[in-house]
Write a structure and sequence with these properties.
Helices cover about 25% and strands about 40% of the residues. The protein has a seven-stranded antiparallel β-sheet, with helices on both faces.
């Protein structure tokens, strides 16, 4: 989808109870006009999405430096069948990097959660006023 095409990372902004945003660079895949991210099932991101499903995202570099415009969306946890399908898309996109993280995750008994993000198709002005 436009600015996210050929990108490896997106910066995902989730919200705390006090309304302040937390921005985190994450891997993502895009499928059928929706975005998918995976994270630890008990992570802060997962808790924030559970409490407040409204999010913002923008393409970014690995360290989180935003390289595009922010767009608003709504995140929701997907069912296990969808999560399995999306996991295969992650494997296609990230290859050996994903294999490595999966092995480490299994050794640490790391439980993941997969979220679908549907965009509101509304760009948000970025920090320098461009939008």
């Amino acid at each position: 989808m436009g600015q996210f095409a050929n990108q490896k990372y997106l910066n995902l902004e989730t919200y705390r109870r006090d309304g302040s945003g937390v921005r985190t660079p994450v891997w993502f895949v895009e499928h059928a006009g929706k975005f998918y991210v995976r994270t630890g099932a008990k992570s802060g991101k997962a808790k924030r999405i559970r409490n407040f499903p409204n999010v913002q995202l923008a393409p970014c570099k690995a360290q989180g430096e935003v390289i595009g415009n922010w767009v608003k969306g709504t995140a929701r946890l997907v069912d296990s069948k969808t999560a399995d399908f999306i996991n295969r898309l992650f494997a296609q996109k990230y290859g050996l990097q994903k294999v490595f993280f999966d092995v480490v995750g299994r050794l640490q008994k790391f439980e993941t959660a997969t979220y679908e993000i549907i965009l509101d198709n509304q760009e948000v002005p970025n920090e320098n006023g461009a939008g």
